[in-house]
Amino acid sequence: MLYFIPTPIGNLSDISFRALELLKTCELVFCEDTRVSKSLISLLNAKFHADIHIVKFIALHSRNEKEVLASIDLAIFEKNVAYLSDAGMPGISDPGRALVEFAQKHKLAYEILPGANAALVALVSSAFCKKEFIFMGFLANKGKDRQKDLEKLLNHPYPSIVYESPKRILSLIEQIAIYEPERQIFAMKEISKKFENKFKAKAQELLQILKTSNLNGEWVVIIEAKEKDFSHNTLCEQDILELDLALKSKAKLLAKMSGKNPKELYQKLLLSQN
């Protein structure tokens, strides 16, 4: 059986009793970083007298997952096997998804244990979420891709969750403050650790607060939903069809909206006029 086990994101006591009991039954563990996982097991054994004895640690992350998965002997799953990310829930801005797909493809029994997740802790702490929310993970680091991510982020009709590093947290808030100085933002760092801290303010105010704050640590940022009602202001296919434009221009606009081939859409528009 394959188990995906969430690991503590700061406080070692956040490990579940069930996770400890399952790790005791495992001789082999796949993990994001073998050094981190070996250290975690040592700490768990010391703190909880867990008596966990992992014989083999196999690194499995985004840079080697194809090679590792191609070489796996399916017989290893006849015993209990675990997957551990460095911190938090596997598969959420952490490796693990490829191994889930591998299990599905080969019809292997697997189970995801509930556990620590920084995004949900911060979201609940923000009080921004009434029902829906959007998780974006880490934005692109720089350039046009980051600009696109930022524009998307600010136009979401729901609260949006972003992970950010201490090196880029100030520039992120600064960019938001330029476009939306009045937008409410909640930022939380070092979740469940000794120096956990929460900030909630308008973008322009938060920028000034963070300029004089200790930025060390991993950050989760929640951006309040855009107030504008998109249901009445978003272009739909019919809106484009009614525009006084050449068919090729309409086909290009429809292709951008739908991701379909503009040439095929153009041919359909031509046929519809016959």
Q: Helical residue percent?
A: 25-40%
Largest sheet: 5 strands, parallel
Indicate the radius of gyration in whole angstroms.
Answer: 23 Å
What's the pLDDT, averaged over the residues? 93
Q: Tell me the overall shape.
A: flat
DSSP strand content: 15-25%
Structural features, described:
The chain is of the alpha/beta class and 274 residues long. The protein is built from eleven helices and ten strands. A five-stranded parallel β-sheet has the order 3-2-4-1-5, with helices on both faces. Helix 7 runs antiparallel to helix 8 and helix 10 packs across helix 11 (262-272). The model has no long low-confidence stretch (mean pLDDT 93).
What's the structural blueprint in terms of helices and strands?
Elements: E1 2-5, H1 17-24, E2 28-31, H2 34-48, E3 56-59, H3 65-70, E4 81-84, H4 97-105, E5 110-112, H5 118-126, E6 134-138, H6 143-155, E7 160-164, H7 169-179, E8 184-189, E9 197-202, H8 203-211, E10 219-223, H9 237-241, H10 247-258, H11 262-272
Parallel strand pairs: 1-4, 1-5, 2-3, 2-4, 6-7
Antiparallel strand pairs: 7-10, 8-9, 8-10
Quick gist of this model?
This protein is an alpha/beta fold and 274 residues long. It is built from eleven helices and ten strands. Helix 6 (143-155) links the parallel strand 6 and strand 7 (160-164).
